[in-house]
Design a protein that fits this description.
Length: 101
């Protein structure tokens, strides 16, 4: 009876992991827009590629700081794939604007 202090209750609801994923997506959107507006015409694609690389590193940092090993690969894949799609959409809008001024 005296060992009740050692017993811990299980975690019923794990903390949400969507905040880190959405953070990376927002950074991708903002950085993609900034690169599209500020970069010269010849350097936009290189800037977008650098933003995607930065989003990959940011995804690692955000997910490692969270300290949850469960579904780490899935969260990383969702973060990077979402960033890729967002930057692709930004690039598509820039291309359409360049064709139809």
């Amino acid at each position: 009876m005296g060992e009740n202090d050692r017993v811990s209750s299980p975690e019923l609801a794990p903390p949400r992991s969507t905040a880190g994923i959405v953070t990376v997506w927002v950074v991708a959107l903002v950085a993609g827009i900034v690169v599209s507006v500020l970069a010269p015409d010849g350097w936009r694609s290189a800037g977008i590629a650098l933003v995607l690389a930065g989003c990959l590193v940011l995804s690692f940092v955000v997910q490692l700081v969270g300290g949850r090993p469960h579904r780490f690969i899935q969260r990383m894949a969702i973060s990077v794939a979402g960033s890729f799609l967002i930057l692709g959409a930004v690039s598509l809008v820039v291309a359409i604007v360049a064709v139809f001024p």
